[in-house]
Amino acid sequence: MAVNRDSNGYTFGFAIALVVVVGVLLAGIAMWTKPFQEKNEEVKKKMDILKAILVKDDYSKITRKNAGDEFENYVNLEEAIVLDMNGVVKDTAAFDIDIKKQFRDKNLEEKDKDYPMFIANIDGKKAYVIPVVGKGLWGPVWGNICLDEDMRSIKGATFDHKTETPGLGAEIKQDFFIKGWIDEKISDENGDFAKFEVVKDKSGSTKESKVDGITGGTITSKGVEEMVNRCLLPYIAYFKSLKN
Q: CA dihedral defined by 210, 211, 212, 213, rounded to 10 degrees?
């Protein structure tokens, strides 16, 4: 029997078949590329941690090809830990934790979240890398805060985003913004939290616990402020327990 290609039935059937075929192809491609995507994410994560702990000249030598080996030179994942919201160690599988996924999960209560921390060795001195995640103007922002061996002083940092406005909020990843965090203290001499404020009056360079914000990027700057203040709390409790 001849097929009436002008009929509605033929049109719907063809459309359904096309959707199924395309869907199967896309699913197959997604499954095939998944290992490559996961590997790229792993390399990016290691590069971000290295960027927080290394000075600019040393980090310039890091590439996607050598990031894995360089990471092992500085960070021992067996020393990494996972804290609960009260700063109590609960696990050691820190690298596997996706803090961005946790942040997106609105059903995950604060008490059930994991807080990973990586411990680096740089020229015989320890450094502590704390991943952070929060919300900017248009979407999530994230980064790493690296503390010196005194567990107080910020040695380095990285901030990143995916959707912030170019030339404004997107500038959080630039050196001039990150530089404002260097040498700031996350706690006082008693180990109590020194809450940060990102300011727009340019007083950040002269006052403790204040960092200059980005002109025209106030909401993103404040997002970074909220992110850092919230994410540091479990680590403050952990460091204070060590000192006591």
A: -110
